[in-house]
Amino acid sequence: MLRDEAVIEVIAGNGGDGLVSFRREKYVPQGGPDGGDGGAGGDVVFLASREHTSLLRIGRRFRFAAGNGQPGGPRKRTGASAEDLLVEVPVGTQVYDAQRGNLLRDLAEDGARLVVAKGGRGGRGNVHFATSVNQVPRVARRGGEGERRELRLELKLLAEVGLVGLPNAGKSTFLARVTAARPKIADYPFTTLQPEVGIAEVGDYDTLVIADLPGLIGGAAEGVGLGHRFLKHVERCRVILLLVDVSSGALEEPGAAWCVVDHELGAFSPELARKPRLLVATKAEEESCDERVRALEQAAGIPALRISAVKGTGLAALLEAARAIVRGEARAI
Ligand SMILES: Nc1nc2c(ncn2[C@@H]2O[C@H](COP(=O)(O)OP(=O)(O)OP(=O)(O)O)[C@@H](O)[C@H]2O)c(=O)[nH]1
Ligand SMILES: [Mg+2]
Asked: Per-residue pLDDT for 146 more than 70?
């Protein structure tokens, strides 16, 4: 189970101030109080929606603030209330108070709503403060302050597809290419330090939750490498995509790369070793890689699917192959 997490600040709007004002009319020398009330500040409201499957977008925008209510006007006019700020979060988001650590709510159902910061009430205008002994009240109330709190959001995502491979194999580039996730990509090993999850659309109707993991290295299963910490996530996946760089610039020969990764998976757990897999030859845009693809297939004993995330070739076929395994329509080769 992968966890998506975000810490954000939510700030409700302040209520508008009440107004001190007196009627001014011709021939009425001493008009009574007519200062109106302030409008209410906007609430920040979470709305659970199936449209969203990750907290990435929300986490990037750290602060969510609703508008303030308008002050009261003369002639008993009430200031306009601010609109609530509706924040869509994925279904399954758990909302915690970041300071106290307590769970506020588990937004488990589509359409569930939660007010996470209540807007301040509008202050009362002086029209409310006239009494028999004080006909000219010079007091009005200030608008109430909007609630402000820090929240920690947690979302448990069950990744269906896990990307494993040596560092620099092109895992994150693949994820970025087929999902809206934007993992860091760079031309050096161990660019990815934390698993990242993305949702890929497959064909017209289906989606796949794909987890990009830090690269594996030899000895990782004994706890040496970074990838080890995350292999347990792969145990829950329905299919493993084992990515091997077959370009001329690859850090390892494809056959050797496959051996390392295969060994690490097996050494981590027998369950991982048995998990359905697809072998993927990455960065396969040059014709000269044919030979290295063959060497890879020979080492692994199964055919490889060729992709180039940069050119966009082979991606749809790979996603479809993964989808068919995840949905139980096909077995791994
Ligand atoms: N030519 C070519 N280069 C690619 C392709 N896919 C990825 N690369 C390059 O390979 C390098 C490594 O890519 P990443 O996606 O960061 O690799 P990774 O497997 O996520 O690496 P780690 O996070 O370090 O494990 C980057 O410089 C990419 O631009 C491809 O299809 N063709
Ligand atoms: Mg990466």
From this structure: yes
